[in-house]
Input
Amino acid sequence: MTEQFALGKENGKIEVMFTSKQIESRIKEMAEVISKDYRHKNPLLIAVLKGAVIFLSDLIRYMKEPVEIDFIAVSSYGASTKSSGVVRILKDLDQSVQGKDIIIVEDIVDTGLTMKYLVENIGSRRPDSLKVVTLLDKPDRRKVEFKPDYCGFTIPDRFVVGYGLDFNEKYRQLSDLCILNN
Ligand code: 5GP
Output
């Protein structure tokens, strides 16, 4: 059995939304814009575990200014694809954000609850500046008002996996971003 069979590509369970090439060229463009905005600065990029890890590692390799990285983990959907609406910090930052230029790096903004909570929480720790970059945005599903400062792709209301995003911890290693069909 090939890897693709094991991952469900054989029966149409998953279909490609964006190829790795499309993602790569969009991330290059985003990194260029962000690098310009942070010229002569040394931003601290905070990736939201676990989904944003691959996005963070690709993004920083195209950034020109020196960056630092840290990680935060919040409660996620778990086995369900529906948002519980409750956000909890499971793993906090290793360092203070006070006086720093912070960029939160997210895989996907859906209801907006996670980012609203994180912006309020990290914002209260007195960074110099705070922005959010997300690879994907599903604005149709918003429950609270939230607009990311930088966004890779705006997508319709579909559940996506791959490129770091999972369903039940599966599919993260797919290099394409795929729609998961029931
Ligand atoms: P929000 O708080 O905006 O509703 O949800 C943000 C989190 O929900 C994301 O970081 C991600 O973990 C999860 N999520 C939302 N939509 C999707 C999706 O289409 N696919 C996957 N794999 N996770 C999603």
